Amino acid sequence: MHRRQLTPSLFTMKMARINVSITMSALLVVTLILLLTSLSLPSFAQKQPYQVQAAAKKLKFEIIKEAKHDKRLFTQGLLFNDGNLYESSGLYGRSRLRVYNAKSNALVKQQGLSRRIFAEGLTKIDNELYLLTWKASKLMVFNANDLQFKRSMPYQGEGWGLTNNGKHFIMSNGSAQIFFRDLKSFEIIKKITVKNRWRAYNKLNELEYAQGHIWANVWQSPFILKIAPDSGQIVGIADMSELIKRHQRSGQSQEKVLNGIAYDPSKEAFWVTGKLWSKRYLVRYR
């Protein structure tokens, strides 16, 4: 008995069936892979901050008080402690530290710095003041009572803003990152990137830690940011253009930028000012 021979048409039909079978099997495998992948996506997505974070709240402010401010000062750091305001002023050959009585605004003491130093952010821990330098790559430590220099600690890169939360120094360097540093060694412990959802904010300058958040000036902008210290997410933005317009008029120096944030816990309000401004303002955010 002879084996039946396949005609071309029968051969084509069988090959088509085989191809369909292979295609269906491949589709089934792909479907299973996609199904398994989709089941794991929610847990992955929950780890992405930009997918769950709300946009930053627009903060409003009211002016509680105004005080005179020396318009010769290139304000870099500002802080409130025990009824006094401490201020660092920058520029080569003009850098200095000042202490004022916050209630009367009287100058209590001041200390000029080396002409080679460009002073930057300032913070206070116990009885010591800690001052960043712009490009000298050293943290300078002063006695808070007489403003006399005590010692210095090295670090890499530029120094811009400085504050502390009682556990770490918190520092900016003009980028979108904030660095948490050890109180004794000044070594970096961790860093966060400051962002509103997925948009990073560069040029972070003066810093203040208050009300459980980091507050930051953004250089050459009208904004003060309220930042969650764990994630770097911006939870509030205050537009201070109203104050800036009082000091930046047509033909005047564009160096008169907003800079300087100091929290007064007794009033639950912030002292804010700017470089070369003639006034500082006590404001409350809401």
Summarize the structure.
The protein is α+β, with helices and mostly antiparallel strands and about 290 residues long. It has helices at about 10-45, 50, 240-245, and strands at about 55-60, 60-70, 75-80, 85-90, 95-100, 105-110, 120-125, 130-135, 140-145, 150-155, 160-165, 170, 175-180, 190-195, 195, 200, 205-210, 215-220, 225, 235-240, 260-265, 270-275, 280-285.
The major β-sheet equals: 5 strands, mixed
- Assembly state (oligomeric): single chain
Continuous helix count = 3
Structural class given helices, strands, pairing?
alpha+beta
Q: Radius of gyration in whole Å, from Cα?
A: 29 Å
CATH T-level fold name of the largest domain: Neuraminidase
Strand order of the largest sheet: 1-20-19-18-17
Question: What overall form do the CA principal axes indicate?
Answer: globular
CATH homologous superfamily title of the largest domain:
TolB, C-terminal domain
- What is the first-to-last residue Cα distance? 98 Å
User: How many separate domains make up the residues?
Assistant: 2
> How many E strands?
23
Level-1 CATH class name of the largest domain: Mainly Beta
Describe this entry's structure for a reader.
The structure is a single chain. With 286 residues, this protein is α+β, with helices and mostly antiparallel strands. It has two domains: 8-47; 51-285, Neuraminidase, CATH 2.120.10. It is 17% helix and 45% strand. Strands 1-20-19-18-17 form a five-stranded mixed sheet, with no helix packed on it. A four-stranded antiparallel sheet has the order 2-23-22-21, with no helix packed on it. Strands 3-4-5-6 form a four-stranded antiparallel sheet, with no helix packed on it. The longest helix is centred in the first third of the chain and has 38 residues, at 8-45. The protein is globular.
